[in-house]
Design goal:
Elements (H helix, E strand, L loop, with lengths): L5 E5 L5 H14 L4 E5 L7 H6 L5 E5 L14 H21 L6 E5 L1 H6 L5 H9 L6 E6 L4 H6 L2 E4 L20
Parallel strand pairs: 1-5, 1-6, 2-3, 2-4, 4-5
């Protein structure tokens, strides 16, 4: 088998997680072993609820909330809680990435990089430590050039029009 590829879906537009989870569905259809990590998302999203009912998918979801949703983003207690959860998630990731999954989704990991909770070198090290067959998908808003060069598939999701821009709130079942 050829070496697994690296996929990156990034940008300000809606659809990065949706694209990554579409690949989960396709892989499961062929009986592949899949792990999905959700970073900086609550455990109550529709995708987590649905995937938790599929025994063939190993889900890793933590009590992490992106600092942009905090009322006081510099509150030390919140940072300590977030750091503890991120450390737990990265410890799980280091184990899973070497276990021989066919597909590993790292949803919002680029946002961990953007807010300084992981380094670019850490992500490259994780990608380099994957098994020969493992495909890895990374999502998030910003993607540094070194990761862009490293990716085999690179998709920038651009927002052309979005109801959020006119003040509409996220809708259950569509945005989360």
């Amino acid at each position: 088998m050829k070496r697994g590829k690296i996929h990156i879906y990034y940008g300000e537009g809606k659809g990065k997680t949706t694209a990554a989870l579409g690949l989960v569905v396709r892989s499961l259809g062929w009986g592949r072993k899949v792990a999905v990590f959700f970073f900086l998302k609550p455990v109550t999203t529709g995708e987590v609820k649905f995937l938790s009912r599929i025994p063939e998918v190993k889900i890793f979801c933590y009590k992490q909330v992106h600092p942009i949703f905090w009322k006081n983003s510099r509150e030390k207690y919140e940072w300590r809680k977030l750091l503890a959860e991120v450390e737990r998630a990265l410890s799980d990731l280091e184990i899973v990435i070497r276990e021989g999954y066919d597909l590993v989704i790292l949803d919002e990991i680029l946002n961990l990089l953007d807010i300084g909770l992981v380094t670019e070198q850490y992500i490259l090290d994780i990608l380099n430590s994957r098994t020969e067959k493992t495909e890895v998908v990374l999502t998030g808003r910003k993607c540094p050039s070194a990761l862009r060069k490293y990716a085999h598939y690179l998709s920038q999701i651009k927002s052309v029009k979005n109801p959020f821009c006119v003040g509409e709130k996220a809708r259950r079942g569509i945005e989360y």
